[in-house]
């Protein structure tokens, strides 16, 4: 019997700190700013990471309800890269992204210019495991090392009965079946996080940089998280990566962490982020985190995505400014994080991180 990827969340996860940030005592619980997220009207448009799609649905449904239908919020799940582009172009008021803004190609500078020269607001909103899901008849559980995963997605291991796979699965009846690696065909923050994991944990087997575009030809590509999940489910011999909260009944690989094999879970994702560090030399309004992939603690699961919301501190239109502030305030609140955990299976932000995010969101319009 296949064991579906776990979607439940142990409440104590919320107590884990994403990183050590001093916060005022008044903000220690990261509570909801009810005044900011009510009394809103008009429209608000965002776009970006497909990983956030279900969480965004929970968030905008709640905030629209708080405002008695006077506010219409839309979120177009077009992928992190396109979402960031639309934000920079001014086509949307905020964006969701699975990778933080960088200036490798001038993106951070362009976002700052879009925001009138002010530092961009970039706060974590959504923490989730990336499941490496598979569809192999007769195989209910599967253990893989990072090196084996890298060689599968690089096309170097091509059959499910390969010796490298068999070595970590001595009790499995591995079939003589072609492996079909499934990747995102569109630019994706999930791809960037997945390739970041492979590059950091299996550098001898994965010779590529972390990128939004999957760097290897071959295999099968699918658009968006839902496309990847559907293709894996319909293809015998398939293996692919997707946000664990959206993989449904597909079964996930347990990856090697220290001396054990660990399945994806909200708890494991939160434990990885808890031992990660903030990116150096960022603005006070920027909470970008360098995820620690090389964890040895088997309570942590290192194949994760930490997804952000990006926005401006000020907007020319007062209504737009109030709507962005109110919506983001709800997203990082205890209530908003709880809604996402219940509906999308994510790991809530820690109390300290939520409090710091609220402090930053409060700068909108100030």
Q: Could you describe the 3D structure shown?
A:
It is built from 12 helices and 14 strands. The model is unreliable at 1-33 (pLDDT under 50). It folds into 2 domains: 24-127 and 277-291 and 306-361, D-Maltodextrin-Binding Protein, domain 2 (3-Layer(aba) Sandwich), CATH 3.40.190.10; 129-268, D-Maltodextrin-Binding Protein, domain 2. Helix 7 (189-201) links the parallel strand 6 and strand 7. With 366 residues, it is an alpha/beta fold. 32% of the residues lie in helices and 19% in strands. The protein is elongated and about 60 Å long. The protein has helices at 34-37, 53-66, 80-89, 107-114, 146-153, 163-167, 189-201, 224-234, 266-274, 318-331, 334-344, 351-361; strands at residues 42-48, 71-76, 94-97, 121-135, 143-144, 180-184, 220-222, 238-243, 251-252, 254-257, 260-262, 277-278, 289-290, 304-311. Helix 2 crosses helix 11 (334-344) and helix 3 (80-89) crosses helix 4. Strands 1, 2, 3, 4, 6, 7, 8, 9 and 14 form a 9-stranded mixed β-sheet that branches. The chain has a 3-stranded mixed β-sheet with strand order 5-10-11.
Condensed summary:
With 366 residues, the chain is an alpha/beta fold. The chain has helices at residues 34-37, 53-66, 80-89, 107-114, 146-153, 163-167, 189-201, 224-234, 266-274, 318-331, 334-344, 351-361, and strands spanning 42-48, 71-76, 94-97, 121-135, 143-144, 180-184, 220-222, 238-243, 251-252, 254-257, 260-262, 277-278, 289-290, 304-311.
């Amino acid at each position: 019997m296949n064991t579906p990827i776990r979607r439940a969340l142990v409440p104590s996860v919320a107590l884990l700190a994403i990183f050590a940030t001093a916060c005022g005592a008044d903000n220690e619980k990261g509570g909801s700013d009810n005044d900011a997220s009510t009394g809103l009207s008009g429209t608000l448009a965002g776009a970006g990471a497909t990983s956030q799609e279900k969480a965004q649905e929970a968030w905008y449904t709640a905030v629209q309800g708080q405002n008695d239908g006077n506010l219409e919020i839309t979120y177009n799940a077009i992928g992190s890269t396109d979402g960031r582009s639309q934000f920079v172009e001014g086509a949307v008021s905020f964006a969701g992204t699975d990778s933080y803004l960088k200036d490798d190609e001038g993106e951070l500078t362009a976002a700052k210019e879009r925001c009138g020269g002010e530092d961009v607001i970039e706060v974590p909103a959504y923490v989730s495991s990336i499941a490496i899901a598979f569809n192999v008849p007769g195989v209910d559980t599967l253990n893989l090392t990072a090196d084996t995963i890298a060689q599968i997605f690089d096309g170097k291991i091509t059959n499910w009965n390969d010796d490298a796979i068999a070595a970590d699965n001595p009790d499995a009846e591995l079939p003589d079946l072609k492996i079909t690696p499934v990747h995102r065909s569109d630019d994706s923050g999930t791809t960037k996080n997945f390739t970041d994991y492979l590059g950091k944990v299996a550098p001898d087997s994965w010779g590529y940089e972390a990128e939004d575009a999957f760097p290897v030809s071959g295999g099968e590509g699918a658009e968006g998280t839902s496309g990847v999940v559907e293709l894996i489910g319909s293809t015998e011999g398939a293996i692919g990566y997707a946000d664990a909260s959206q993989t449904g009944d597909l079964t996930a690989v347990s990856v090697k962490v220290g001396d054990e094999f660990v399945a994806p879970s909200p708890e494991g994702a939160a434990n990885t982020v808890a031992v990660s560090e903030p990116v150096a030399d960022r603005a006070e309004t920027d909470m970008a985190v360098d995820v620690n992939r090389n964890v040895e603690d088997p309570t942590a699961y290192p194949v994760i995505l930490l997804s952000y919301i990006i926005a401006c501190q000020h907007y020319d239109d007062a209504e737009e400014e109030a709507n962005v502030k109110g919506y983001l305030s709800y997203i990082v609140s205890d209530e908003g994080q709880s809604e996402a955990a219940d509906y999308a299976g994510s790991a809530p932000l820690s109390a300290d991180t939520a409090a710091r995010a609220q402090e930053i969101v409060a700068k909108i319009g100030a």
